Every structure is written in structure tokens, then in C-alpha cells.
Amino acid sequence: MRIPSLSVILFACSTALAAQVSLPKVLSSHMVMQRDLPVHVWGIASPGQGVTVAFRGESRNAVADPLGHWSAYLKPGAAGGPFTLTVTPGPAPNQGTNQPAITLEDIMVGDVWVASGQSNMEFPLSKASTAAQDLPAATNPQIRLLMVRKRTADYAMWDADTDGWTPSNPETAKEFSAVAWYFARDIAARQHVTIGLIDATWGGTVGESWVRLTALGEDASLAPIFASRGKMLDEAADADAEQADEKKQLEEAKAAGKPAPQFPWHPPLMSWGPGLLWNGMIAPLAPLPIRGALWYQGESNSALARVHTYDRVMRTLIEDWRHQWAIGDFPFLYVQISNFKSTPREDWAQLREQQVRTLAMRNVAMAVTIDIGNPDDVHPTDKLDVGLRLARAARVLSYDENIEYSGPLFRQATTESSSIRAWFDHAKGLKVKGGAVTGFEVAGRDGKYVPATATIDGNTVIASSPDVPAPVNVRYGWANSPQCNLFNGEDLPASPFTSER
Q: To the nearest 10°, the Cα dihedral for 235, 236, 238, 241?
């Protein structure tokens, strides 16, 4: 677990003069420490100043280095609490009276999950379709929440912009990620441990903004990302002028009592910069041991110029997050984007295929949501099922339960005379909901796809069309907003796919 050096230098220079020992805001009362991993406590003091950290009957001493940075690790422990953590400053070199001890109360030891991504992960519990029932009952002592405010930065921040940890209740949960909250409620009830959730999200952002800049630069296949960013910066002046004109038109329409004019969406310049959200919102979290990460993002990467690099972006993100946290290949659970009409300038089918390819990584899982979207709204309100599907994956990858956690995933296709057979993993009890199987297409060697008649045969699907006498490829749900009705016996939907590689 690493603390960014440049931000430490800047922070230490300001705090060393005041000789005040301080902790990052991610360490606060009501927090959750990760069970079964060393307890990490870190902070800032005057260079050469000693501190004593005490927790669960154990204490450790640390001395601030020349930059004022100190760090202490205490022994791992089982879930439990509440506990008290104290940080007692020692005498500061060439300073006056000692600073009083810092005391953090009501600390639980359980499991910590980081939830990140764009607007569908940011989507608050108060707007979920189940909010009327669940928000009034959101007081849950087994769920603790940390909301990280939106912030970009050119270099990795030492501390997050947050008010600290709070127990879950109707007030603290209402603006918190609905997907993450439902995930935590299910896991806490099953594991009987306190779940700490960290909400670090920003709607309308691209995946590469959440990845360390150096990690992106080490992969030559991601060069188009930097070209795209350069184009955005080149066009920034024109965009500013255009948005100023739009603002003027809105004001004039309002003054005249006319309907507000509609304008095209403009990508946010700052939050789309490669690495900028990692620096501002994720880097301050990396010193804190966690159980795993939840991710819901991809819609902003569906543009035709970006979509084909998304698998590489996500592999880089996952690999580098794991490297920066330095606690092993922790579970990374993500949501496949749903169905939305969108525009021809975006390819949601290809983005979903890119997300499927990321499953080749170790200790990752994907929740398919093609059945619970809203073709007319990029923000479907059913967040309960999304959270529960992520929780199913966690129950297998992180908590060693023996259950089915994925919908059917395409494995391979085999030709059979005038038809083609699609084989699946996670397909026990393969079934259709609502009549005949929909969404299948086949293509011959000319690569032209046509709608196909599809039937279930055991745990496979046989597809054919009289217009394609010798099919060589098959695909399913290949549209921005497809009609899909294939499920396994656990009512988990099949992921859209193509047999083309």
C-alpha cells in the first residue's frame, strides 16, 4: 500500500510547521477496518516526531520521516467491535507542548468494499424504484458509509475530500450509491459482519479517468486515449464559446417565457482526463486495506472512437488498482451496461462484448443487466437486482459459497449443416422467458447477419435462417437496446455475445 510522494511532500510542508499530528479523513470514527488483514494507520507529523498507535490492546510506535510522513501496521484480527483507536503524538523536535491524543471511536472490523464508476453506480438510493420501501428502513448498524466528493487532480492526492464515515440511516443513505447499498445489505445479513462501503463515483466519466496515468502510458495499445484527450483540449476553446452561447440562449428563452432550447451533450473536460479521477478520488483510498471493488461504468466509453479499447482500459485499471493496494488480486466485480436506445454514434453491443472479454482476468465477475434496463432512460431505477447480482458474485469469489452467480456466457459455436449451435457456460436450466427465443442472428461467410429462428437444446441454442444456408457465425442481443429473453435456471440473464473474434 503506497502513499503518493508528491502529495505527501506538499501536505507535509504545510503541516510540519504547525507540528500537528493528523490523520487522513478516510480514517475516522465509525469506520470499518478490514478483517484478516494488517491494520494500517498513517498520517502526517513534524519530521522526526514520534507517534504511538493503539488498537485492540496492541500498540505500535512510528516516527515521521523527513517529509513528515509516518505509518504503522498492527496485527490482523477477526470481525468484531466496536473498538477505539488512539494516536498519541510524542514530543515534536524544537516545538512546544505536546498535542493531545487523537481518538477514533466506534470502529468496527469487518469487510470494506470500494464502489466506483459513473452515474449508474452514483445513482442514489433515494431515486431507486424500491426507495419508498427501503430508504425509511435504511438504519442498519451493519453498514457504514464513506462518501468521497468529486475531485480531479494532476497528481495523486494524499487525502480524500470527505466528511468521514457514518453509520447507515435514512439521512446518510439517501444520496449514497443504491447499487452498493443493496450489495452491502445482502452481504452483511449473510456474513453477519459489518460492511464498510466507500462511494467514489462521478457520473458521465470515462474509464481511463479512473486509471493511474503511468499505467495507461505503459500500454501502447491505449495510445488512442491520449490522442482523443489531445483533440478534446484542442477543441476546448471552441467548446467554451459554444457553451457560453448556449447559456445566453437559455437565459433569453427564460426571460421571454419560451421553452428552453435543447443542445447536444458536451463531454466534461476535466473529469475526462486520463488519470485525473484516480489522482483525486481513488489514490487517497489505496493505503486502506479492502475486501474488494464494485464497478459500474462503460456508457461513456461506448462512443465509436473509444469502444474498441475498453477491455484494455479495464484490464489496466484492475491490474493497477491491485498493484497500488498491494493486498493481492482482490475481487473486482463489475456490471455490464444495460439496454438503451442511445444513438448510432455509440456501440453499446461492442461495449458489452468488451466487458465480456475482461472476464478472462483472475478473480473478476460480471453482473448482466440486459433484462432490467430502460430503453428510454440511461439510468434504469432497478438498482436492487443489480446489487443482488453483484452480491451473488461476491458470495462465490470472496465468501466461498457454492452457488450460481452468473448468467449464461457464450463459450463457442459449432456448425451443423444449415444451423449453428451456441454453447454456454453457467447455462444449467437454460430457458426462455416469454415465448420463443429472441435476439439471435446468423451470418454466412459474407458477414451479413439476418434474424434467426432459435431453439433451446439442453444447455445450448440452435439457430438458423433460410436466408443463410451455411451459417458460420451467430450473435445474440447485438444492438444498443436489444430484446433478450434467455436465462439460466437461477433466473440470471444470458449476456449478449458474438461468435466473431
A: 170
The predicted model scores a pTM of 0.93
* Structure confidence by residue, pLDDT tens digits, 364-420: 999 999 999 999 999 999 999 999 999 999 999 999 999 999 999 999 999 999 999
Ordered structural domains, the chain, with CATH: 110-406 (3.40.50.1110), 409-498 (no CATH)
| pLDDT value for 95 | 67
Q: How far is CA 62 from CA 19, 33, 89, 136, 207, in A?
A: 15, 20, 10, 44, 37
SS3 61: strand
Q: Euclidean distance between the first and final Cα of the chain, in Å?
A: 38
Q: What is the Cα 295 distance to its own chain's centre?
A: 2
Q: Quick check: 177 and 29 in contact, CB under 8 A?
A: no
Q: What is the pLDDT of residue 16?
A: 43
Radius of gyration of the chain (CA): 25
CB 170 within 8 A of CB 135: yes
Report how far residue 348's alpha carbon sits from residue 488's, in angstroms, rounded to the nearest whole number: 23
Distance of CA 44 to the CA centre of its chain: 29
* Parts of the chain with a pLDDT under 50: 1-18
Q: Which helix (H) or strand (E) holds 239?
A: helix 236-255
Q: Note the pLDDT tens digit of each residue in 219-265.
A: 999 999 998 888 888 777 676 677 778 888 888 888 889 888 887 76
Count of Cβ atoms closer than 10 Å to residue 402 Cβ: 6
334: left (phi over 0), alpha (psi -120 to 50) or beta: beta
Distance CA 306, CA 274 (A): 13
Mean pLDDT of the chain: 93
DSSP-derived 3-state class of residue 255? helix
Note the helical H segments in 256-347. 276-277, 310-325
Q: Is 251 helix (H, G, I), strand (E, B) or coil?
A: helix
**Residue 137: Cβ-neighbour burial (10 angstroms; 0-12, 13-18, 19+):** exposed
Give every CB contact of residue 270 below 8 A, 6+ residues apart in sequence.
Answer: 152, 276
Helix, strand or coil for residue 433? coil
Contact in structure between 414 and 423 (CB atoms under 8 Å): yes
* CA–CA separation, 164 and 147 (whole Å): 7
Going by C-beta distance under 8 Å and a sequence separation of 6 or more, which residues neighbour residue 3? Answer: 42, 69, 71, 158, 287
CA dihedral 17, 23, 28, 34 (to 10 degrees): 180
Please provide the DSSP assignment of 340-374 as one string.
----TTB-HHHHHHHHHHGGGSTTEEEE--TTS-B
